[in-house]
Design a protein that fits this description.
By secondary structure, the protein is an all-alpha fold. It contains eight helices and no strands. The longest helix is centred in the C-terminal third of the chain and has 31 residues.
Length: 175
């Protein structure tokens, strides 16, 4: 019990904090993902350097919002945390691999001695950004379609006929 707050307000407060942290991640890291996806669109080295320099000051702070959102989910809603991350295990793993690849590419690009080395790390940064963006679209699609009991359910004939709807989450980021 809290002496200052009504206990029924705590879930609402945690949900608002979680929503704000996820929104901050989407806005701030969306910019980074966009830079990563557009990095291969230019052939000029100076322009790619400017693009990477534009995200440099904010780079390390952006994923902090994601960690805060997932941490709040774990602390405030542990049953929901278990259900959501169990249902989204594969896309979360793919997203983490993409985020790790982006982080490694970002740091090693600054240490590359040649233009070819920078270009190779630019390709890795693009690949990590693409993996992260596609997996986030996959997770959003799974959330919108619902994932309650999806692993235990056996498809019935009508859902086999309409099974193409389940492919929509993987194509959500392409649109």
């Amino acid at each position: 019990m809290t002496p200052f707050l009504d206990p029924e307000l705590l879930p609402v407060i945690f949900a608002v904090l979680m929503a704000v942290s996820v929104l901050a991640y989407v806005v701030l890291d969306g910019y980074d993902l966009g830079v990563g996806l557009l990095l291969n669109a230019t052939t000029e080295e100076a322009e790619r350097d400017r693009m990477v320099a534009s995200i440099g000051p904010f780079w390390d702070a952006n994923e902090t919002w994601l960690v805060l959102g997932v941490g709040l989910l774990l602390v405030a809603f542990p049953i929901a945390h278990g259900a959501i991350l169990t249902a989204l295990y594969l896309p979360v793993a793919v997203m983490l691999a993409g985020l790790i690849l982006r982080g490694v590419a970002f740091e090693f690009r600054a240490k590359a001695a040649s233009v070819l080395g920078k270009r190779a790390w630019d390709h890795a940064f693009f690949a990590g950004s693409l993996l992260a963006a596609l997996s986030q679209g996959w997770m959003l699609g799974r959330y919108v379609l619902g994932f309650a009991g999806a692993s235990r359910r056996r498809p019935s004939p009508p859902s086999r006929r309409w099974g193409w709807r389940r492919a929509m989450p993987s194509s959500a980021p392409a649109g």
